[in-house]
């Protein structure tokens, strides 16, 4: 090992190509050759990757996947405590991002072990860039639940989120997922289905959720990332008293005085300050006269 018990090792999270092996970061080859332990989601895919890169793994190779992640994490932590340099790679993209890694990182951090990364290709960022949708604010939602009811419920939770949303999905579920998205977000919400990114048959299909759901009904193959437009800003006419009060509360919790918060909310909604003020007073009076439920106006 490269270190000692008095000098803990380092955990290295390395991004791997999501398709084209030429996208491998230059540092990846050096880390594969020098690491004491290489923890791989699939050792066979690791072997194919090293052959394509023309490198030899210098240390011990162990499997580290969803099925053994909990059991193997303590073993890897002990190696790190003993001074080893442990390299973690997953099948494609960045470890921990809908891939094994989070448990090991959390355990290493708890033991005050250094964690670093070799940045690499990301399906999330690649899909965002290619989608043609706003990317100034986005939220990665990973994989949706497999059961239809749970999936729809999860989607409805973010139906009013104004950020662009990014999801991973399996090809055999993409038609049901797009139909559920159309139901939760509305048929006309824009989206992009990105499949086989950086591979030979890369395709980005853009359109409304209704259009994409109809397209996917015939079957879609490959690894898929879905990017969905955020909810549109509501017009002043659509903003009810509860939403106005909520916005005032958000600003107050951020440190603004109530008077300034009311003025700011009125300005962004295009409403008279008196209308927002009246909504706040009504909510305050209702809170005083009824049972208290969580944080509110006082």
Automatic annotation (TrEMBL):
Q: Which Pfam families does this UniProt record tie to the protein?
A: TP_methylase
Family stated for the protein in its record:
Belongs to the methyltransferase superfamily. RsmI family.
- Gene3D superfamilies for the chain: Cobalt-precorrin-4 Transmethylase, Domain 1 (3.40.1010.10), Methyltransferase, Cobalt-precorrin-4 Transmethylase, Domain 2 (3.30.950.10)
Name of this chain's protein: Ribosomal RNA small subunit methyltransferase I
Q: What class of enzyme is it?
A: transferase
Question: Which biological process terms from the Gene Ontology are attached to this UniProt entry?
Answer: methylation
Q: What does this protein do, in the record's words?
A: Catalyzes the 2'-O-methylation of the ribose of cytidine 1402 (C1402) in 16S rRNA.
């Amino acid at each position: 090992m490269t270190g000692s018990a008095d000098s803990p090792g380092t955990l290295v999270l390395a991004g791997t190509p999501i398709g084209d092996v030429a996208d491998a970061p230059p540092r990846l080859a050096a880390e594969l050759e020098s690491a004491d332990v290489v923890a791989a989601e699939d050792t066979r895919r690791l072997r194919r990757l090293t052959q394509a890169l023309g490198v030899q793994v210098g240390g011990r190779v162990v499997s580290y996947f969803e099925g053994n992640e909990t059991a193997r994490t303590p073993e890897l932590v002990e190696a790190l405590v003993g001074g080893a340099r442990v390299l973690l790679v997953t099948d494609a993209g960045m470890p921990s991002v809908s891939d094994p890694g989070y448990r090991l990182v959390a355990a290493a951090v708890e033991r005050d072990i250094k964690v670093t990364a070799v940045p690499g290709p990301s399906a999330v960022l690649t899909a965002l860039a290619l989608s043609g949708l706003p990317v100034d604010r986005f939220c990665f939602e990973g994989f949706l639940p497999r059961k239809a009811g749970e999936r729809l419920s999860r989607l409805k939770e973010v139906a009013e989120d104004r950020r662009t949303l990014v999801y991973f999905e399996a090809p055999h579920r993409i038609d049901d997922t797009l139909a559920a998205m159309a139901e939760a977000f509305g048929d006309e919400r824009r989206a992009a289905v990105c499949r086989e990114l950086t591979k030979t048959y890369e395709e980005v299909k853009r359109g409304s959720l209704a259009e994409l759901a109809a397209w996917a009904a015939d079957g879609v193959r490959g690894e898929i990332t879905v990017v969905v437009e955020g909810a549109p800003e509501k017009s002043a006419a659509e903003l009810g008293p509860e939403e106005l009060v909520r916005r005032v509360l958000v600003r107050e919790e951020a440190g603004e005085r109530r008077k300034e918060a009311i003025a700011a909310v009125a300005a962004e909604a295009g409403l008279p300050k008196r209308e927002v003020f009246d909504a706040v007073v009504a909510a305050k009076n209702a809170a005083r006269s009824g049972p208290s439920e969580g944080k509110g106006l006082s």
